[in-house]
Design a protein that fits this description.
Blueprint: H1 8-29, H2 37-59, H3 66-95, H4 97-113, H5 118-123, H6 125-158
Keywords: Membrane, Transmembrane, Transmembrane helix
Pfam families: DUF4199 (PF13858)
InterPro entries: DUF4199 (IPR025250)
C-alpha cells in the first residue's frame, strides 16, 4: 500500500514564503538593519525544516527508513534555500538596493572608528558593494543549507520509526 505525503516542493515553497514574509517585514520596519534579526529568520528556518521532516515521518507513519526521511527533509531545505537565495538576489539588486548602501555606510563608520583612511574606501565603494553582495549571497546559500540540513537531520534522528517485517509467514 502506497502512503501519500506532501511534496518536498510544496513544503519548500511554504517555508520560503514564510521566511520571505518575515524578511519583508524586517525591510519595511528597518529591523533588518539590526544584527540579531537575521538570526531570527534563520531560527525560524531551522524550526520549519525540523517540522517539515517530522510531518513527512508522521504522514508515512514511521515506515520510511532514516535515509528516506532525511533525504525528503534535505530536499525540502534545498527548495526553500534556492527560492530564498533568488529572492535575496532580487532584493539586493532591485527591490531594496538601499539596504546594501546602508550596510556599506555602517561598515565605513566602523572603519573610521578603527582609524582607517577614508581615501582608499571612497575610491573602492562600488567594489565594496559587489563584494558585500557576493558575500551575503554565498553566506545565505551555505548557512541555510547547513542549518536547514541540521534541522532535517535532527528531525530524522528523533522521529519515531516502525520497521517493516522482512519475512512473511
Amino acid at each position: 500500500m502506497e502512503v501519500s505525503y506532501t511534496s518536498h516542493i510544496r513544503k519548500g515553497l511554504i517555508i520560503a514564503a514564510i521566511i520571505i514574509a518575515i524578511n519583508l517585514i524586517g525591510h519595511f520596519s528597518n529591523l533588518i538593519l539590526l544584527p540579531w534579526y537575521g538570526f531570527i529568520i534563520l531560527t525560524i528556518f531551522i524550526i520549519a525544516s525540523f517540522i517539515s521532516t517530522w510531518i513527512f515521518n508522521t504522514q508515512t507513519k514511521g515506515y520510511e527508513p532514516f535515509s528516506a526521511t532525511l533525504s525528503h527533509g534535505f530536499k525540502t531545505v534545498a527548495v526553500a534555500t534556492v527560492i530564498f537565495f533568488v529572492y535575496n538576489f532580487l532584493a539586493m539588486h532591485y527591490f531594496f538596493p538601499g539596504y546594501v548602501t546602508n550596510q556599506i555606510e555602517a561598515l565605513k563608520q566602523e572603519a573610521l572608528q578603527h582609524g582607517e583612511k577614508m581615501e582608499s574606501f571612497t575610491t573602492n565603494i562600488d567594489k565594496a558593494k559587489q563584494i558585500y553582495i557576493n558575500t551575503q549571497l554565498a553566506g545565505i546559500l551555505i548557512l541555510y543549507l547547513l542549518a536547514g540540513g541540521a534541522g532535517a537531520l535532527l528531525a530524522a534522528v528523533s522521529a519515531p520509526k516502525k520497521f517493516k517485517p522482512t519475512t512473511s509467514e
